[in-house]
Specification:
Catalyzes the condensation of (S)-aspartate-beta-semialdehyde [(S)-ASA] and pyruvate to 4-hydroxy-tetrahydrodipicolinate (HTPA). The chain is α/β, with parallel strands linked by helices. The protein has a domain of 223 residues: TIM Barrel. It contains twelve helices and eight strands. Helix 4 links the parallel strand 4 and strand 5. It is globular and about 45 Å long. It binds the ligand O=C(O)C1=N[C@H](C(=O)O)C[C@H](O)C1.
């Protein structure tokens, strides 16, 4: 499938069962839950998946199960692969990109080593050349230790095989705006920081990869649809309603609170994360649950009023047509 790098993509957590094993059935249920809520694609083995803690066999099993769900639902699957050893990243991306049902690769800017921008571009030229599927660069400075300039990201946009960037920068600053303004049509910018979906989408991002959207999925999908439809007042209502939820979900290291809330909501068997992450505090999960309830109210109210407006418009058009 040619991936649609637009709309809402959810980077799935990796659920664990009470014995500490990867719970593939819960993962499958969660995948359907997110797609039922309005996500148009899924991401496996992202940051939120605790990918560094999975064995190779576990990671393979996660990809196989997610690929089966995505194939059944006719949506694209993006898979995280790469790292800060270019030779190893090339091998991993080549293998993942060749796996059945993998439509795109999400590959992080090499973390920890703090290479120059020249080095980052050379890294991605090699990695993209090895990939059988389009590659999304994952720009996440607070995790990698380096922030790429707009000029460097635009150089990456011109590399064959690189189809976009997941932009998880902390602010909509001049570099982010310059990237959005200069990105060619072949290069999709996706919002990667959950607090900045509205401003990034309003400035031209085509969608979002958003861990918070495990919860209140319909609200995040509605926010992006509102921006697409040019309905900024509705998008502002949605974004304002979602912000307390996003803040609550990221109050402790991700994905602990998301897992805590999914467990509380009965979607996964345990809230467990693997070390070095620690389980979320009960207070953080409770705050997130309250924020989630508040979003449901706003989004439902908004949908009701949006439907009422649609009905009015439809009635008006019908009347106009009859005259
Ligand atoms: O796994 C991801 O992809 C995401 N991880 C981010 C993080 O934990 O830094 C957050 C974002 O929503 C998606």
């Amino acid at each position: 499938m040619t991936p649609t790098l637009a709309g809402l993509h959810v980077p799935l957590v990796t659920p664990f069962d009470t014995a500490g094993r990867v719970d593939l059935d819960a993962l499958e249920r969660l995948a359907h839950h997110c797609l039922d809520g309005g996500a148009v694609g899924l991401v496996a083995l992202g940051t939120t998946a605790e990918a560094p803690t999975l064995t190779a066999a576990e990671a393979d099993a996660v990809v196989v199960r997610c690929a089966a769900v995505c194939a059944a639902r006719g949506v694209p699957l993006t898979v995280g692969a790469g790292g800060n050893d270019t030779a190893a990243a090339v091998r991993e991306v080549a293998a993942r990109g060749a796996q059945d049902g993998v439509d795109a690769i999400l590959s992080v800017v090499p973390p920890y080593s703090r290479p120059s921008e020249e080095g980052v571009v050379a890294h991605f030229e090699r990695v993209a050349a090895a990939s059988a599927v389009p590659l999304l660069v994952y720009e996440v400075p607070h995790r990698t230790g380096i922030r790429l300039s707009a000029a460097a990201l635009l150089r990456l946009a011109a590399v064959p095989g690189i189809a976009g960037v997941k932009l998880a920068v902390p602010a909509l600053d001049a570099d982010a705006l310059a990237l959005l303004a200069g990105a060619p049509p072949s290069f999709a910018v996706l919002a990667g920081d959950d607090t900045l979906i509205l401003p990034l989408a309003a400035a031209g991002a085509r969608g979002a990869i958003t861990a918070s959207a495990h919860c209140a999925t319909a609200g995040f999908a509605a926010l992006l649809t509102a921006v697409d439809d040019g309905d900024l007042p509705a998008a502002r209502v949605g974004a304002a309603a979602l912000l307390p939820l996003v803040q609550a979900l990221f109050a402790e290291p991700n994905p602990a609170v998301i897992k805590g809330l999914l467990h509380r909501d009965g979607l996964i068997a345990t809230p467990d994360v693997r070390l070095p992450l620690m389980p979320a505090s009960a207070a953080a999960v409770e705050r997130a649950a309250e924020a989630e309830r508040a979003v449901d109210g706003v989004v439902l109210d908004h949908c009701r009023s949006a439907t009422a407006i649609q009905d009015d418009r439809g009635a008006g058009q019908a009347v106009g047509a009859a005259m």
